[in-house]
């Protein structure tokens, strides 16, 4: 019998359904999820040479206290707004300035942005924030949602600004339909206010270690985050990934690998990769033994494309592609840094990958188990098991432990603004 037959998508889906609740980092929901994962491991994955640890850690985040956006000229109206987490606070009375729609933030539009509160399509990330700051904008407004939303979906999405040390301007998110009204009614002056404060939260990582047989000094990691955003229960992002890691931990507990393997369930990924950063920081002395990280983030939906993002030597893509061909599973490869926990490993010089599947509903209330498929979970689990099995059993590890310098430079900018 093919060893992969011991991997079950139906069992992975049953595991995932145990977590149909919000698991925002630092809350009782995330703590309850960590307890469930630990209990499941204690009951189902055990044996000689297998150890389980729980590692709590603290993290700092910004908490929004107030956010508002109101038009003051040529009409007066307050719009529902959600503050951008991490962009700092305005003066207590807010900022009032002329309003300008700069669409995608092109250079022509931004030439007229000085001293204005600007509306930008989509999300303002680190790069766009710098462009707005350089243009002299007085504040920014993002939009979320679609023109056909109704009911709860009219609530603006919560957005975060990460990787920015200095925050001279503040911003909010409003719904798409309100943004369209601002433009169509000719809003010429608006007042924007955001107040937030720093708070400390506690999260935890779960680490299952399976000691290798005759290459125990070399370590492979298989990881996924189990926390969610507060807007929904995060089945696709990323309890599906956590379920895949669970399936592989069961498989390798029954098929002892030559190399040591650690199966990792990270907390507080959604807050800024805090779980994986804590993991690599605690293991500074051991990291020289780590050869490769196999991360999963976004998985489980039936319709979509499978992508493996590799942050490492291009040769890794070729090798993993050969494994995927052997498994008969279609995969696209991208050789780049990835916005997930694999970055924390690559930053420390450990080649890493993230297995990802296209899907719907990320960071919304629609990200539920109803959209997750046993077929998709099994398919991704088998693919990752194929990769992990080959790497864990190879006589000579097939690629070097190095991350190209251009990726290291990009990661330094990502983690050290």
From TrEMBL:
SUPFAM superfamilies recorded: Zn-dependent exopeptidases (SSF53187)
Primary location class: endoplasmic reticulum
Single GO term (MF): carboxypeptidase activity
Gene3D superfamilies assigned: 3.50.30.30, Zn peptidases
One cellular component (GO) term of this entry: lysosome
BP terms from Gene Ontology: proteolysis
Domain Peptidase M28 intervals: 205-387
Quaternary structure and partners: Homodimer. The monomeric form is inactive while the homodimer is active.
Source organism per UniProt: Candidatus Fusicatenibacter intestinigallinarum
Compartment list: Endoplasmic reticulum; Golgi apparatus; Lysosome; Secreted
InterPro entries: CPQ, Peptidase_M28
Keyword check for Cell division: no
Protein name according to UniProt: Carboxypeptidase Q
Keywords carried by this UniProt record: Carboxypeptidase, Endoplasmic reticulum, Glycoprotein, Golgi apparatus, Hydrolase, Lysosome, Metal-binding, Metalloprotease, Protease, Secreted, Signal, Zinc, Zymogen
């Amino acid at each position: 019998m093919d060893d992969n037959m011991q991997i079950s998508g139906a069992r992975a889906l049953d595991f995932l359904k145990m977590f149909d609740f919000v698991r925002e980092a630092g809350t009782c929901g995330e703590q309850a999820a960590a307890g469930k994962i630990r209990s499941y491991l204690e009951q189902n994955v055990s044996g000689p040479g297998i150890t389980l640890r729980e590692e709590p850690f603290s993290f700092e985040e910004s908490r929004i206290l107030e956010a508002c956006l109101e038009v003051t000229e040529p009409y007066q109206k307050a719009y529902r707004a959600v503050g951008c987490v991490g962009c700092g606070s305005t003066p207590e009375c807010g900022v009032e300035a002329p309003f300008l729609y700069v669409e995608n933030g092109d250079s022509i539009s931004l030439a007229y942005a000085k001293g204005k509160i600007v509306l930008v399509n989509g999300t303002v990330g680190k790069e766009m924030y710098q462009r707005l700051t350089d243009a002299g904008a007085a504040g920014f407004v993002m939009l979320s949602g679609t023109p056909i939303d109704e009911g709860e979906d009219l609530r603006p999405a919560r957005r975060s600004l990460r990787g920015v040390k200095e925050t001279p301007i503040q911003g909010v998110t409003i719904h798409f339909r309100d943004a369209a009204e601002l433009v169509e009614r000719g809003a010429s002056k608006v007042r924007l206010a955001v107040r937030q404060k720093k708070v400390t939260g506690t999260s935890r990582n779960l680490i299952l270690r399976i000691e290798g047989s005759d290459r125990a000094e070399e370590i492979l990691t298989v990881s996924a985050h189990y926390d969610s955003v507060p807007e929904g229960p995060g089945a696709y992002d990323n309890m599906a990934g956590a379920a895949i890691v669970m399936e592989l931990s069961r498989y390798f507990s029954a098929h002892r690998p030559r190399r040591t393997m650690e199966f990792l369930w990270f907390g507080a990924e959604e807050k800024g990769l805090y779980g994986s950063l804590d993991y690599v920081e605690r293991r500074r002395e051991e990291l020289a033994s780590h050869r490769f990280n196999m991360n999963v983030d976004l998985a489980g939906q039936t319709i979509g494309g499978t992508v493996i993002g590799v942050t490492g030597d291009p040769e890794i893509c070729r090798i993993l592609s050969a494994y995927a061909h052997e498994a008969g599973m279609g995969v696209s490869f991208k050789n780049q840094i990835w916005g997930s926990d694999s970055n924390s490993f690559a930053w420390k010089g450990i080649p890493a990958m993230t297995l990802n599947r296209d899907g719907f509903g990320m960071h919304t209330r629609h990200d539920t188990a109803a959209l997750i498929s046993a077929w998709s979970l099994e398919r991704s689990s088998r693919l990752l098991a194929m990769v992990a099995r080959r790497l864990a059993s190879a006589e000579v590890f097939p690629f070097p432990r190095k991350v190209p310098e251009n990726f290291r430079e990009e990661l330094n900018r990502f983690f050290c603004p």
